[in-house]
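[RESIDUES AND BACKBONE]
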Amino acid sequence: QVQVEESGGGLVQPGGSLRLSCKVSGGYLAVNSMAWYRQAPGNQREFVASISQSGRTSYADSVKGRFTISRDGANSMYLQMNILEPEDTAIYYCYARTDHEVGFGDSWGQGTQVTVSS
């Protein structure tokens, strides 16, 4: 019903930059909040950044000052990642909270790999 698709991951050297994109499609009334999470091998999925329907943002302490989350229209989201560190290596997942006639929905993308290495 709701599809979430990330893109933009890849291999980058420490100090480099990547821009992740996420697009939500399918059946819903509106996209409420959106967020980026990441999961490294052996670790739990952790919060990275979020943005509300009104544009309010929140960041994990580990990425403050380096990452910027933004929205473009109602269903697109971006994560500009600068000064990347090896610790940023993970699969990055897009999350979308959607409003429906009968309630709310929580949808995840398939993930995009970000590898920061020399």
Remarks:
- The chain has a mean pLDDT of 96.
